[in-house]
Amino acid sequence: MIATIVWIAGVIAAVWCVLDIFKHNKLEPLFKVLLAIAVLAFSWVGFLVYYFLIRDKI
Known about the structure:
The chain has about 60 residues and is mostly helical. It has one domain. Helix content is about 85%, strand content about 0%. The protein has two helices and no strands. The longest helix has 26 residues. The radius of gyration is 12 Å and the shape is elongated.
């Protein structure tokens, strides 16, 4: 039960990151796609890396 909730929260966070990635017009389209794939593939780790390292730089 708890694992399912954590998994769902991770999916929601990853989808939020992907939507945020595609809102930025400064990024190259290929970089957007690659970053989105990485965030979705690594769920929580991808979310944390994006939120704390990448988001402020774009």
